[in-house]
């Protein structure tokens, strides 16, 4: 009778599997039923934790070579990889395939074995550890709480979060002198007050991701936004002034590029150029 009542009250929710489950637990005594429900509850909590943690790094849930972390949309991967003709290991982010590397963390200090971990260190920072648990690379944020985690976003950004407050403590897209590909929503920026800038850094070759001499950054002169390519500290090439739609120094950059780029002052001293996703 109870089952029929439920079926009448919730016709969509009750199916054959539910009927069998209800019949099964009805035949059990209270203690066995309680035990079974406890097991199911623990299993559900575990599965929920796994589903939440697929794009998250913590001190207990980290990446161990050769494991990888994939963004929820499946477009970006974070993990360990080797350069061509090398057994050394780097941690990086790539887009769909390793042929399109976006960002390399330990580019100038690769691991010489496959025993590395990418984790949250004891001081709360993101860190790459070698097989001897020595820190090879760190996000190097000072004076932070140790209650932190890292989130890998759908557009390839990796952020370090304070779990208690939810504040972003560090993120790839705001790091100065990083070598990566410019992706939608990632910004080339310069702060007019501090002079601190976020740059694209060149690689020595498509197969050697260590830092080379060239960089690309945003510049503001006479309230005009430009983008320069530098050879160390010398101007190598100018893209030309930004007129709100295109860079005027590129003759082939016609109206077809309108709405592809955005350049603006955020009101906090930062001049940003970025691709609209």
In short:
By secondary structure, the chain is of the alpha+beta class.
Structural description of this entry:
- With 277 residues, the chain is of the alpha+beta class.
- The protein folds into 3 domains: 46 residues, no CATH class; 120 residues, Agglutinin, subunit A (Orthogonal Prism); 102 residues, no CATH class.
- Helix content is 15%, strand content 36%.
- Strands 1-10-11-12 form a 4-stranded antiparallel beta sheet, with no helix packed on it.
- A hairpin with a 5-residue loop joins strand 7 and strand 8.
- The N terminus is likely disordered.
- This is Putative non-specific serine/threonine protein kinase.
- Its EC number is 2.7.11.1.
- Keywords: Disulfide bond, Glycoprotein, Kinase, Membrane, Serine/threonine-protein kinase, Signal, Transferase, Transmembrane, Transmembrane helix.
Beta strand count: 20
Number of structural domains: 3
Strand order of the largest sheet: 1-10-11-12
Q: Mean pLDDT, nearest integer?
A: 73
Helix tally? 3
Largest sheet, in brief, is:
4 strands, antiparallel
SSE class: alpha+beta
> What is the level-2 CATH architecture name of the largest domain?
Orthogonal Prism
Distance between the termini: 57 Å
CATH topology of the largest domain: Agglutinin, subunit A
Rg over CA atoms: 25 Å
The proportion of residues in beta strands is: 35-45%
Helix content: 10-25%
| Net shape | globular
Strand/helix succession: HHHEEEEEEEEEEEEEEEEEEEE
At the first level of CATH, what is the class of the largest domain? Mainly Beta
Q: Unreliable stretches, pLDDT < 50, 5 or more residues? A: 1-53
